[in-house]
Design brief:
The protein is α/β, with parallel strands linked by helices. Helix content is about 40%, strand content about 15%. The protein folds into three domains: about 60 residues, Electron transport complex subunit B, putative Fe-S cluster (3-methyladenine DNA Glycosylase II, Chain A, domain 3, Orthogonal Bundle); about 260 residues, Dihydropteroate synthase-like (TIM Barrel); about 130 residues, Rossmann fold, CATH 3.40.50. Strands 10-9-8-7-6-3-12-11 form an eight-stranded parallel sheet, covered by helices on one side. Strands 13-15-14 form a three-stranded mixed sheet, with helices on both faces. The protein binds iron/sulfur cluster (SF4).
Length: about 475
Amino acid sequence: MSKSQISPIEVYKILPRTNCKECGEENCMAFTTKLVNKEIRLDQCTPLLDEKNKSAYLKLWKMLKPQVKEVSIGTGDRTVKIGGKDVLYRHELTYVNPTAIALDVTDSMNEEEFKERLQNIENFYFSYIGHDLTLDMVAIRSTSNDPQKFQSMIKIFAETSSLPAILCSFDPEIIRNGLVLIGKDRPLIYAATKDNWKEMADLAIMYNCPLTVYAPNDLDLLKSLVRTLLEYGVEDLVLDPGTFTDEGLADTLNNFTMLRKAAIKENDELVGFPLLGVPLTVWIDHEAAPEVAIWNETWLASMLITRFADVLIMHSLDGWSQLPLTILRNNLYTDPRKPVAVEAGFKTFGEPNDMSPLLFTTNFALTYYTVAADIEAGGIDCYLMVVDTEGLSLESAVAGRKLTADKVGEALKEGKAEELVKHKMLIIPGRAARISGEIEEASGWNVIVGPMDSSGIPKFVQVEWPKKLNE
Ligand code: SF4
């Protein structure tokens, strides 16, 4: 049974049902609803942690545990959690733990180049509708095949980067040399194969690190290795069925899809682990020009993000590769049950006074952040009233009657706009022009129709606002 099909009544029956409110909810039924929707954690019902409720806790834990195991990489603030999925498609509930993106460095780089790339990976940042887009991990590859060389680069990594690591080599001796230095930081080991699984398993157990299982294009072998490793005592596994380009692309996507379907729809516990893709393979043994390789790696990564990859190892650090990927990931992992909205109310930009312009927009996050960015870029001192349109964009809100003249009037009143500015003039978005008369009537404010696009706000305020003040 998919977790999206769990009956709240079945869960409710197992809870203590005392309505004690220790979880912060009004009653046990309210807690149940949030629990099955993954909006609250089981251990927030503290009475369940009592010894006498142990069997109920375990029963619920088993019932609610994700079909794809959640595996953590790293420690402390920068811990990356992957997997933990309950559904095949996001609209069935929601996706959790966005696909983690790891960028590679190699032990064949010179020290300066190595450090600079580490810093570039760590410094990648873009603000997108209120979300911080960053990269998650560093994959340190042994291309020298020299254990000492690998260890010296791991030392530099430990001194330079705060991101979690993936240690990449099929040679257990090389992995051991890395773990000696950063094993306590819980890196992901890449990878156990049919030839080295025992040595890699011993290292994973000794250092309590998650372990990747690699069986290229052979799902039977992959499952057999997983069974062996679980019996051996390794619990946190990550599965790599191989990432192939060109004529191998169809197999790659099929394998990822079959593994995730088997985990979620068929409850196959042997494949209920996070999936790892390696778009970086486009760079290996291919003779394409670098810009073509970046393009190939980017579309391959985008396909894997939509086809259930929980972690990716990549090489392209260019903005035109990582920016669309991190935005795609961000969009896919928003909760479809909640509108992408910001809090309504009054925002201040720069240092406005009581004769500064007052504008308004909706609380749809994309609209708000676009308007805010344009105001900031223009260096304008003003107030911006954010009207609650239930997360709808301006035109949709006007068409759907979520943005009405009455609502704008109420927002002005509730926000005590008359105490903020003396001029009683409101600049409305050009796309709300058709309700300008209604707004004037409902609010008693003078309405000025602003530009159609928020990029026109700086010029509009510079040129039109002084004229309006002097009229
Ligand atoms: S803490 Fe547990 S028993 Fe108490 S109200 Fe919440 S769900 Fe019910």
